[in-house]
Amino acid sequence: MPDAPSDTTPAEREGSLALSGIVRRFGAVTALAGIDLSVRKGELLTILGPSGSGKTTLLKVVAGFETPDKGDVLFGDQRVTFAPPAKRDIGMVFQNYALFPHLTLAQNIAFPLQMRKVGKAECARRVEDALKLVDLQGLGERLPRQISGGQQQRAALARAIVFDPRLLLLDEPFGALDRKLREQMQLEVRRLQRRLGLTALFVTHDQEEALILSDRIAVMNQGRIVQLGTPQEIYRRPANQFVAGFIGESNLFKTRIDQSGRAVIDDGMRLHLPAGAPGEGAEFGLLLRPERPRPLSQGEAADNAFAGEITEVVYLGETAKYRIRLEAGPDILVRWPFRENGPSYDIGDRLRVGWGRDDMHIVEWT
What we know:
disordered N terminus
């Protein structure tokens, strides 16, 4: 069994999750290729990745629905690798709600308490408290079909937390909701998780959702965690080409260093690099987020300045997104604030655009 982290106290480990060397194979397919991960007490950690990356299999291993071929699962100091789901004291919220259709909301929420032999009076008190927490007070006697999808998701969340689980698992819980309701539920879950101090593991393929909700994000690809960090670290300093392309929109260039110490793009574009760039002959990726370039007025300078023509405009409300075909390089995507009384651009407009050397980030190119 792996040792508990040396920098945590027993109280902190009590609400934590640790995965050590988790491997799960299905025939010739390796779904999990040696996962090491710790979730701190009171933390909301998101597992983010595309379909087939292994994130759902990892969640099932934590929940006890899948048994790893190698490795260990620890809750605090307790090894639960082979414990059945019912013995893990986990609350789960699914995309399809998984409410019992023939039971009222109150009966659905009471179910995990009844399984734990909680007395009737205490059960009724906890159910009422849970309904209030998720803003469903007064609706306990309704059946699931009598309430909206958003209310059903709140009821599923109340059922998952009513017994004070040691860990809350959320498996793409907002995928069936429309955009506005999904954004509302994201913020409600985040507030509730912080208020109750819940340790939570959240699974999603939605990058924006992960950035909004998470204390930390573990990005998965092909059964491995390829980067673990805060939302700011993942967005601003992605570790490699996959993370840079998967998280948010990006201008990503394959480049090499020439004799002058500048980066050369295949079509001849040359860029001044940030500090700490590799030496001559090195090949790597350069990431430039769309919000970093800026329009340059006549005579204004920048570390990297180019002329170009706007070939596409997408209005997004608070911002507008422009595709610019640079004269000395590839197309770049930019995103600038949109103001009724400010500058705006149309297809065919020509302008100069520039950015600083430190607006770019070097990534591993694979």
